Amino acid sequence: MALKVETYELFTTDKPGSGKTVQAKPAKGKTATGARKRVEVKAAPKVEESYAADGSCFHPGLTKPRTGRYYVGAKGAVKTFADFDEALTYLRKMKVAYWTRPNASGNWGVVVAERWDELRY
Which domain holds residue 61? Predict the structure, then answer.
């Protein structure tokens, strides 16, 4: 609300002689009176991720900067994926999960999963 006027009221027009009143829709998430609509918020789905011994996990931010792809698999048997869900599905099917991620120095290397646990956002 600005200057005690609802946003949708700024776009309400009543042209003299037109005989019509045109009113814009209220802002998203609000009713015509400005009251907030009750919206049902669903909890984020629980996602189990693989964690390495150093505490790092396989997550959506692990695309290599030059290629924009995920690298999954042991050295010599690495597969690349453009889509995180496809990479995660492949990782889950592996007998032992391996993926590539940068270390503290920014160098990319292969790590092995030590455990699977819920991804914390």
Answer: 48-118
